[in-house]
Design a protein that fits this description.
By secondary structure, the protein is α+β, with helices and mostly antiparallel strands. It has helices at about 1-25, 45-65, 105-115, 115-125, and strands spanning about 30-40, 70-75, 90-95, 130-145. The chain is built from 4 helices and 4 strands; from the N terminus they run H-E-H-E-E-H-H-E. Helix 2 crosses helix 3 (about 105-115).
């Protein structure tokens, strides 16, 4: 009987320490990383920008996804409340932060789908006449346990 009481006391005393160890572990795992770009498109140029997204950006993202560099991409439209708010939001999702180190491979895909880096830079300058990148941010999904 004494052994049972001592064992019960020992078990009761050790339960809080087991709970403390469990609370010391992360309650999430780090998931994919998404590049979020908020774009303001000037009035009257929305369709022109959508045409560029369809003709150039989408095929490039599809090829980049096929090459295994990204896992997904999305385009969202927003209702801007003022000129400093986005009308388009672009998402490019990578498997993890390490996948961001594949810039050389991304550039090679873009050269194949679009044109040389110099050619792409000239086109960017042209697009910047009617669109403005308001924000560029990487966000990471946290997968809760």
């Amino acid at each position: 009987m004494t052994k049972t009481i001592i064992l019960s006391i020992f078990l009761a005393a050790s339960l809080p320490s087991l709970d403390a160890r469990a609370q010391d572990e992360r309650q999430y795992t780090e998931g994919p990383v998404t590049l979020v770009q908020e774009i303001a498109v000037e009035y009257g140029h929305f369709e022109e920008y959508i045409d560029w997204l369809n003709s150039t950006w989408k095929p490039t993202m599809a090829a980049t996804k096929k090459a295994g560099i990204i896992i997904d991409y999305k385009v969202f439209s927003a209702t801007p409340q003022s000129p400093d708010h986005p009308s388009i939001i672009l998402w490019i999702t990578y498997k993890n932060m390490a996948a961001l180190d594949r810039g050389v491979e991304e550039e090679a895909v873009a050269k194949t789908v679009i044109c040389s880096t110099e050619c792409q830079n000239k086109a960017r300058v042209g697009r910047n006449e009617y669109r403005k990148v308001l924000r560029r941010e990487y966000i990471r999904e946290l997968i809760l346990k």
